[in-house]
Design a protein that fits this description.
mainly alpha, 7 helices, about 0% strand, elongated
Amino acid sequence: MMGVVNVVMKKKLPFRTWFYFRQGWTTYFAFIFAAVNTLVTTYYLAIKNIPELISIFPTFLAYVLIVVSIGVPLLVVIGYIHYKKSSAYAAEADINVESYPYFYKLQPGWNQEVVFPLYAVLMQAVVKISKNEKLTDKEIEEIKSLNDKLDILIRGGYVGSHREKKDSIQK
């Protein structure tokens, strides 16, 4: 089974690497680079050439401090409006839900390994009990196994492996 996991991971490695690269680029490098570039460009190409603005921003450091002290709170407000007050974030969330692969199927892990199997076993037990039937030894063992997995989860442990694909899932 580990061979299958390694093959799957090797196939996904370029895509995972590309994803991490884009996250690092957009979140950190491009953001910082764009901010510094904007400050330097606007100061040295615009403000330095306009005498009225030089009196307001006598040095580059003064310009940076003033722009950051006004810009950061303004951008926080704009971000808040984007998430809380506009329809833009709701539209983004809708698109994410539509493209999420597990929206219409069980997520690997504790849902697939414990919770929904437990629902199935409980439903079967309720049907048997309502018909005055006894649980078989196999059914009791399955309940004990699920209970053990629940105990592991309650203690903060892990069950299953999200990287392994089971034959029954791929049907």
